[in-house]
């Protein structure tokens, strides 16, 4: 489903270039749960952004469902965002002016869903995430864990094939983190959603079935498969 | 989707109440001025729209070529034209003639000066003035009154059949009353009289004279289906046939041209003998003033929205990864600005109601214009367009954010670098406000100067009473008996205004050089009463001997110094004893020369003046009241007036007050002051918004600096200096421009105030004072904040 060939990312710095990612090649197939790990500044977030088509690689080729992403038009890329990709952020990134209900509804609006379809879809999600009572609250009235739940609900609202999560539990304490990670596991197992997460925590990384380790922009050559352990 | 835009827009506006308030109030102020202009524009298009068949009714204009080949357009024509058109051209359905004049009319001792129109019978069918009651004025010496005039003369009683007296035309019978007009019209009058009423030799000659193109107005209604080209073709033939034998003095020739009644207003050109239709120029100026004010407010919107772009950037990122495309985000942000703008329209309407009673607004802008649904639709459309335009730049910038950038880091994000743009917008606002203030202050100071300056004659303690129908000598005798009255004099003109009669006077009876002079009729007490100084000769002897007061014009006159210069006499003493011809038959001798004083307004330099004794022309008495108890004396003067003239109210006025009212134009200055205050408050609000935002984003820096030992005043200076610099730049640009703008106005006056240090200094002082307060208010609070709070969590 996802395949990178010799992807590099660099920024111009003075007369030379600063490499953030060097020569990354990897494949992720549908239904996988991949954790990207590495120290600060190793390029994890950049890699995730490239995978999520928020940034473009400086070199190399990216195939998403066998389509070369770098050749896609802006419009087509937005289409992919609407229908195939969901994002979860460390800082939740909910829209403060919208209620829980409206935050979850946002991607459905852009998908062009009819009002009744939206209603039933959001209701279903609220029910599933146990947040029916909180649907009219604003993000600032929720705890961090609850906000992240909304963030995940929003990410899965449009039934994406893949969710990219950038340190989804980075701002949460361990109980909440566990709850969120269990949820990801469940989404991966029961709904078959591919999940790619960036994390610092070995514990969280083990929820996945594969760990990619980055160091100074290089992908460590032996990807560890947890199943084979 | 649209609903969602609305919801988030409202919540955003509510969340940032200060910014919304600044934007709504600013936009509303600008919009209010635009609404005034729009109303006036509508009034101009509705002008006279009650005339029937205005598409095929034309007013004929006369283009006069003068002997130096200057072309001047007149709204009037010679009188015989209407008849020729009607008689000889088949395509003409009807014509009508209108002669406009002023008349002094009396009814039962009530006197009224009003414009009247002499009209032929066709007037009542060609133009749309409808009768409410009675018959059209067709027979000689009949008249139809407007409802206003009827009320002024006859109150609530039925005016039909009543008689009005006119000095020249005689007794005129009222035959009808017009309906009130639905809109304003180009012909404004208090009454119309039948054309046949005008029957003096001169007036009869006018009816057949092709030379007098200023005589009156000619209207032509063409038959249905007839084209205006036929009329255009006929007019030169008529001109050629009838102007052949004319001996011109200063003109060469003239041509006629038709002007459709439908396109009369707004007027494209300035016409002589004008009927004062609103011109495009006036409307464009008003709209420009409105748009500039609105632009200042739009600057605020752009500025504040861009300044807060950081907080919106994250939202843009989220929406983009949720699948929003750029135009969707743009329409969301524009929806916000449109909502704000429609809110502002509501507030603008309230402001409009508030200033509606101002005399300036009534007289110049919205007098008599009704707000109908069309106008409301225009208002709403206007506010929506304003919202779209104001929202475009911020929407374009905000929707351009890249999600990877704005979502990655939580702090320290510099997303928008348009600092230069934002700063120049603030500078532009204050520059415009300051220029307006300097110009306004120059106008106000000049008017105050003219209202209170020393004119060179006494105005303190002088009470002017218009004579109307009261005989001067009787009134003077009665007044002189009152103990508090020092002296009573008479004059034909109040000094300090337009100066009175202006005509050519010659040294010899025929030929010789002539000089234009002002002539005012005064009596023998006038010189002493007004504290005028005789430089040579004496007060004319006849004035002192002719106490009967009803005598023929005196043979002796006084002149001023300027007249001595104009007649090229060396010094005042030489002038005494010389003779002048006031016209072909009146020779007068100069008895004395008075020191120059300002007898016109300060627009003109002092002109030559002749003071002559012509009792018939006296229109005012000047009563000099002794110091002490002027109010008690005034009451007694009123008593005398009441005794002599029980029907008319006492309209006497202190000379000081007359000069003040004549020159201060407080209404106009108040209105302009309002505009300037609007511009200034918009600028200050914008500044407040920017300072608030900047200090909020620098609160962490302030905390760090305080921890490192910075004092409060150092912090205030740090936060304020950037903005103070902007104010200084605005001042630097505005002072010279404001000076030029002020001078452009003052140059019209021969004697004017100077735009000195006090005007410029006062304006820049106010700018820095208000701006400084705005800045200081916010930065002081920021500087006082406890660093522990701002540094604790990030």
TrEMBL record, chain A:
The keyword Transport applies. The keyword Transport applies. SUPFAM superfamilies: P-loop containing nucleoside triphosphate hydrolases. Residues 2-228 form the ABC transporter domain. Keywords: ATP-binding, Lipoprotein, Nucleotide-binding, Transport. GO terms for cellular component: membrane protein complex; plasma membrane. GO terms for molecular function: ATP binding; ATP hydrolysis activity; transmembrane transporter activity. It comes from the Bacteria. PANTHER family: ABC TRANSPORTER ABCH.1 (PTHR24220:SF86), IMPORT ATP-BINDING PROTEIN (PTHR24220). Belongs to the ABC transporter superfamily. Macrolide exporter (TC 3.A.1.122) family. This is ABC-type lipoprotein export system ATPase subunit. It comes from Larkinella arboricola.
From TrEMBL, chain B:
InterPro entries: ABC3_permease_C (IPR003838), MacB_PCD (IPR025857), Macrolide_Exporter_MacB (IPR050250). It is found in: Cell membrane. Residues 288-395, 675-783 form the ABC3 transporter permease C-terminal domain. GO terms for molecular function: transmembrane transporter activity. It is a multi-pass membrane protein. PANTHER family: ABC-TYPE MACROLIDE FAMILY EXPORT SYSTEM PERMEASE COMPONENT 2, MEMBRANE COMPONENT OF TRANSPORTER-RELATED. It comes from Larkinella arboricola. This is Putative ABC transport system permease protein. The chain crosses the membrane at residues 21-39, 333-355, 375-398, 424-444, 671-694, 715-737, 749-775. Residues 20-236, 433-635 form the MacB-like periplasmic core domain. Its main location: membrane. Keywords: Cell membrane, Membrane, Transmembrane, Transmembrane helix. GO terms for cellular component: plasma membrane.
